[in-house]
Amino acid sequence: MRTRHWFAGALLVLPMAAAAPQVHAQDGPPVLPEIVGSSVFLHYHPDLRHRRDGMLAMERGANDMALRHFVRAAEFSDKPSQAFLADMHWHGTGVPRDRALAYAWMDLAAERGYPLFVAYRERYWHALDADERARVQDVGAPLYARYGDAVARPRMEHMLRKGRMDFTGSRVGVVPFGLEVLVPSPTGGWMRIPEDWAYQERFWHADEYFEWQDEIHDRMPQGVVEIGPIAPGDDGGPR
């Protein structure tokens, strides 16, 4: 099945995609791809790492591998990966088609009220038949028990705490250099970055990290999240 590039593109309006050199928070330093794309950073952000690897696998047509990465990201409360899993189950991409399970994944992705995922959750629901709706509770309860924020966020918080200790402790490839740090350059060697750019609280403190994600989703262009009614013959899923 062909990859739905526009759907993947919409899900990239997220911390990793926002990490361009020109992006500055209104109240903080910029988010540089050299930081958030580094192996060191991604080691302590398994939500972003597995989402990235899942998308790369999907682009290669390695759907089984994509599924595994998205599931791993979902374990660390990554809502876009949960939405990807919903999309895969809705269309039967690499898995047996199961629209009730797809709805349950999208309901989980919409747990924080992100507009794109809420819109798709409602679109999915209206496309389900009575039998599929009757299955939603049964298939959804185990997902929430393992991947809901109540249990998945603490896993991510644990990794961020480890990152604060190790990443900022100069033991894994980030070297303090006065008021700067040295990070691996994408072209080889090292590059100097101001210390406060690498040690931003939104990178390493759970409350600020999840607030950062919320802000990025809230900035998603309205044209992306306005999804029209289901046309005759439409099964409700993204194209």
Automatic annotation (TrEMBL):
InterPro entries per record: Sel1-like (IPR006597), TPR-like_helical_dom_sf (IPR011990)
Name of the featured protein: Sel1 repeat family protein
Indicate the secretion signal residues.
1-25
Annotated keywords: Signal
Query: Does Iron-sulfur count among this protein's keywords?
Result: no
Q: Which residues form a coiled coil?
A: none
